[in-house]
Amino acid sequence: MDFSIPMKRIVPLAVATVIVVVATVWFMFGRDRPTQYMVAAANPYASGAGAAILAKGGSAVDAAIAVQAVLTLVEPESSGLAGGAFMLHWASASEKLDAYDGRETAPAGATQDMFLDDGKAPLGIVPAILSGRSVGSPGAVAMLAMAHKEHGKLPWADLFQPAIELSENGFVVSQKLAAAVARDPALAMMPASQDYFFTKDTSGKRIPVAAGSVLKNPLLAETLKVIAAEGIDGFYKGAVAQSIVDAVHAAPSRPGTLSMSDLAKYEAKHREPLCRPYRVYVVCTMPPPTSGGIATLQVLGILSHFYMDQIEPMSLTAVHFIAEAEKLAYADRGKFLGDPDFVHVPVEALLDKDYLAGRAALIDPSASIGKAEPGKLNDKAADNQGTNVSVAFPSTSHFSIVDADGDVVSMTTSVEAPFGSHLMAGGMILNNQLTDFSFVPTEDGRPVANAVAPNKRPMSAMDPVIVFNKTGDFYAALGSPGGSRIIGYVTQSLVAVLDWKMSMQEAFDQPRFLDRNGPLEIEEGTSLEKLTRDLTQLGHEVKPTKINSGLHGIRVTPEGLDGGADPRREGKVISGFVER
Q1: Are the CB atoms for 553 and 508 separated by under 8 Å?
Q2: Quick one: pLDDT at residue 15?
Q3: Is 200 helix (H, G, I), strand (E, B) or coil?
Q4: 19 falls in which pLDDT band (50, 70, 90)?
Q5: Sign (positive or negative) of CA dihedral 540, 546, 549, 555
Q6: Which end of the chain has fewer CB atoms < 10 Å from its terminal CB, N or C?
Q7: Percent of the chain with pLDDT strictly greater than 90
Q8: Residue 216 CA, distance from chain mean position
Q9: For the residues 312-318, what does the mean pLDDT come to?
């Protein structure tokens, strides 16, 4: 049988083969292939809004604006446009890392004794929060506008549309929000918030909003429309600003001094990111006025002297070493940190390799150091400061975003306490961030770095992080709410991802523990409780407690982006592809 192919068929087959080969090569290498984006945020509505912006070709910053606007509506107990934030941004094409400071500032009328009672004793934290004096000039809007000017792609006005539509049409109240309202009796006694978060039964009794019900916020919709149309002037000047000032001055308890001038003069700031090596990675964080970045880098710097990658995750040894390193970092945090525009903050001294090696040498594998003391720095100005004393609450939110160009946002945002000051204006919860200041301005005649002062930014613990691999490429972004516990949550997760090679979700699923230079707090009802006896024998004061972390992060893997959302909250990771 003749298997030869006639010449008249060879030419068409050859041409067809060439076409197939060329088309395959073009498809694999010559065409624009889909690129992945991802959003990890604390509420499905917010994640969805951010993902929708990215699907339209928006940048990571564009998506961050949409996410924050929606969180203002659906997670008012945690963050909002009338609060503050810190953002790290990585521009992949230019290989530039930016740190944006949107922390609130004290009004010009603030005084050092504003949180002292008539007898010059510190106010209780609740009376201080539920007052007009606790409200600082909000920084989130100005910070987002600054970042959008430098890294935005889509029009500013378009980024508020998801939140406007949800505010007008309503959103389904989550279990988290409903529970937060139900356990906060002060909301029912405050103007505006009592009408928004409660209904009345036939007897006139106030009933908290129920999970699953639909809640609308037309006042917020109008505020968002003004900001969308007028930019930051729509927030810091005009009717929206006046409503904020009026609410602060009309506070039922201790009216504040926040003025139209304070709002108009507010400025977000560029800061120099703090970056230090850890193993084969470089970990980058926010600098002061947040303490989170320095403290996390200190803990990692101390742990770099131990083979954490060879220690079993969540073992007795792992918990002991991390907790001891945290004690030392929190001790330094309590003395040396504040607003660098007002006080001397010894950043380089605190992160000095030799200094951290000396701190690591204090850790005994067989016994806890107990109460850690601040380190002795070669810095007389810093050593002459008193101890910072402040209370930070866990009502914050964090989200991480990677866009289709590889640009990254890691942003932590807050109104401070659950529902901030409990005051509302323009449909927004107003922050109580000024209670992050130390209430007492001096200690034994020495000035306290975090004392109140006009136009000053209170110390924070917010800790957005971006990690780079050994070739300098983006590797991971993460952060968490949790007040002063944020540092422990973030550091534990970094060790899990970088040393123990966990996925983001595995890292966030771990039982939580931390030591703020006091008791060793372990998450109640978890496997960590089995270590209580052994930890106690090492000298730790073990305290099982409810943990309210809210970690959200994204990691790069050979298979694509890997995201995680803390199971302790109601966050969601959404991913998609854009044709390039």
Answers
A1: yes
A2: 45
A3: strand
A4: very low
A5: positive
A6: N
A7: 86
A8: 26
A9: 97
Question: How open is the CA angle 358-362-367, to the nearest 5 degrees?
Answer: 165
Instruction: Output the CA–CA distances (angstroms, integers) from residue 166 to 163, 220, 443, in the order listed.
Output: 5, 10, 49
Find out whether 518 and 334 touch, Cβ atoms under 8 Å.
no
Q: Pinpoint the alpha helices (H) of 270-315.
A: 292-303
* φ/ψ of residue 78, rounded to 5: -115, -45
Structure tokens at 176: 């988290």
Cβ partners under 8 Å of residue 203, min gap 6: none
Q: What is the DSSP letter of 79?
A: -
- Of 180, 184, 171, 162, the C-alpha closest to 212 is 171
User: What is the tens place of the pLDDT at every residue in 211-253?
Assistant: 999 999 999 999 999 999 999 999 999 999 999 999 999 999 9
- Residue 330 CA to residue 7 CA, distance in Å, equals 83
3-state secondary structure 204-230: CCEEECCCCCEECCHHHHHHHHHHHHH
pLDDT at 380: 64
| Residue 33 pLDDT | 56
34 pLDDT above the threshold of 90: no
Euclidean distance between CA atoms 416 and 429, whole angstroms: 11
pLDDT, tens digit, for every residue of 199-208? 988 888 899 9
SS3 (DSSP) at 483: helix
Our answer to whether residue 396 is catalytic in this structure is: yes
Among residues 423, 416, 434, 397, which one has the least CA distance to residue 74? 397
pLDDT computed for residue 394 by the predictor:
59
In degrees to the nearest 10, what's the CA dihedral of 339, 276, 402, 570? -70
Contact indicator for 293, 271 with CB cutoff of 8 Å:
no
Answer yes or no: is pLDDT of 173 > 60.
yes
Residues paired with 418 in a beta bridge: none
419 pLDDT band, cuts 50/70/90, is very high
Helix (H) or strand (E) holding 269, with range, is: strand 269-271
- CA 385 to mean position of chain CA atoms: 28
Catalytic residue among 396, 412, 413, 435: 396
Q: Which helix (H) or strand (E) holds 328?
A: helix 316-336
Distance CA 356, CA 329 (A): 10
CA distance 207 to 159: 34
Q: Answer yes or no: are the C-beta atoms of 505 and 564 closer than 8 Å.
A: yes
Distance CA 123, CA 390 (A): 12
Task: Tell which phi-psi region holds residue 539, choosing left (phi > 0), alpha (psi between -120 and 50) or beta.
Answer: left
